[in-house]
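WARN  no MSA supplied for this record, continuing single-sequence
INFO  ligand: zinc ion
INFO  echoing inputs
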Amino acid sequence: MIAKKTAALCAALALTAVLGIFSSPAVVLAASEKDDFYQAVNEKTLREKQIKPTEASWSWFHERDLENKEFLTKEIEDIASHQGTYAKGTPEQKIADLYQCITDQETRNATARKHIQDVLAPIKAAKTPQELTEAVGELHQKYGINVLMSMDEQRLPDSRRYVARFEPNNPFLSRYDLEKEPQPGAWKRHTEYISRLLQEDGSAKDKADTMAEAILAYEKSLAPHMLTSEEKNDIMVMNQMVTRKEFLEMTPHLDGKRLLKDWGLSREKVFFLSNPDYLCQIDAAYTEENLELMRNYFIARTYDMLAPFADIPLRDITKAYYNQRYGIKQNRTERERASYLLQDMLPYELGQIYLKKRCTPHMVQDVRAMIYEVRKVYRSRLAANTWMSPRTRAQAIEKLDALRVFVGGPAADDKPTIEDMHVVIPESEGGDLLSNILASNAWAAREEEKLIGTDFNPDKWYAFDPQDVNAAYISDNNSITIPAGILQPPFYDDRASRGANLGGIGVVIGHEISHAFDPNGSHTDKDGNVRDWWTKADYDAFQKRAAAFAPYYSRYELAPGQYENGKLVMNEAIADCGGLSAATEIAAGDKTVLQDLYRNFASIFASKYTDQLLHQLLMLDPHPEGRARVNGALSSTDGFYGAYGITDGDGMYIAEKDRVKLW
Ligand SMILES: [Zn+2]
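INFO  complex generated
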């Protein structure tokens, strides 16, 4: 819940949003550029940079992100110091009053539990599965809390019309963590956490322990029916739809008709549902015998969801659990915790401040000029392509020419489709943190319903906020987004050499453009419609080339015995190699430029992770890890061999016939 991005599946440059990014082995021997380019370039950085005890990773992405957050913290504090002077509904009023609600721990401690009890009353009163479904609907409508199903809107594959994505929630733990314990003791710590939440709700310890075991057993029974990470990253899987009739047939126990009514979908005829089997499994378990289990499951989920906004003791129970799960040793300061929470809740408002103070027209122009250059290279490459027929080539060029480009941040009048905090009621008028969240969520749920049946606007800013250190390609409107947050060193620096910027933001731009032509992008056309624009022979040739990336990347060992999952990272690897290859062409054979380019490319992906986070990323993250990401792409880039004199026998050498190439 909270801060829900509207519309559009997007392929991000890096997974930084939730967790932060691999511990390299404690290397002592100096690596040679010819043997391990990643290690040689990043040796000093990786020695000096440590994962802070409050974080699960270190990377330039994460470091710059924390700096952006610190910058915004000062802005927030400045605005908050004039609290009470702002007109209602202005960004400053929302920021100042919400900040007070967050930092006033006394009021949080006094009010939160009553709100949670009010929210949970219908769940606790439910005596049958039907009544429980009604209670689930009531939570959605009154508070925007989704304990069972979640709705989102997505444009149709063949038109701009929004239809609902109506999917059951994922379990607490991933499919992989349910199938195999991620670390010894992880399941026990998990059931202790769930038990603790139930005890916070008033259950006796024995009963809560038994329930927590039953909840874990229930989630384990769902695991084999969940999508794999590869499937989740496949737009054709995610685009699966069901009819209303099919949905009702799958939900005899859940009372699908009632669910649809409570989510405002009574008149809708089709929905996105990526995994019907998973819904059927949940339905099969939703029985009279399991009523108490389901009730407790929903109670635990509600506590887990609301904890960050609740009283301080509950907030800290939840945080302590997630800290150990990701190997985080220590909590951030109260000042940081308050500010980061506010930043998550009002990303648009703070994004506008970031834009005004940190993004110059010069930066935007400069990046637009680079995008123009990279596009030009792509265009000439597509035109000169030898394995596609003229017809397919023309369609690909058409798609490239139609690419929408978003740089910096949204224009002042380009507001989010659904605001994150519609209204903030100050404490002086009776508002508190949870009451504000619940009211805003309920409002957002109603707005979501109104969007269904309207048209997706392809010209809006969707991916990321200006302060985010990331970038994206969105197939729904065939667009790339480069937010202002990434326009700083080592990614971009107007004082750095041309080669360094080509290896940083230049490769990033090329990476995002390549997504338009990766296995997912191959299914959508210039308008974001799912359409087969290939001839059969061309598509076969494409698939053969794309498929080679999987075994190629699987060769990289990231931690002892843990290898990169080539199949999972294939799309991102294709994007990296495409971006690097385009940037190489722009460097036009100039050795100094090329060396700067490859060095900076290697440095932007330097990263360290806690063991726990690394384990998660290897299963879930569609991006290759730092070393595989850098060395994998460079070893397949012909220009790299000349620039650094790589020859047979060097660690970075891969025989020409074994290098992977798509664009
Ligand atoms: Zn990507």
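Residues 1-7, 16-28 have pLDDT under 50 and may be disordered.
INFO  checksum written, moving to next record
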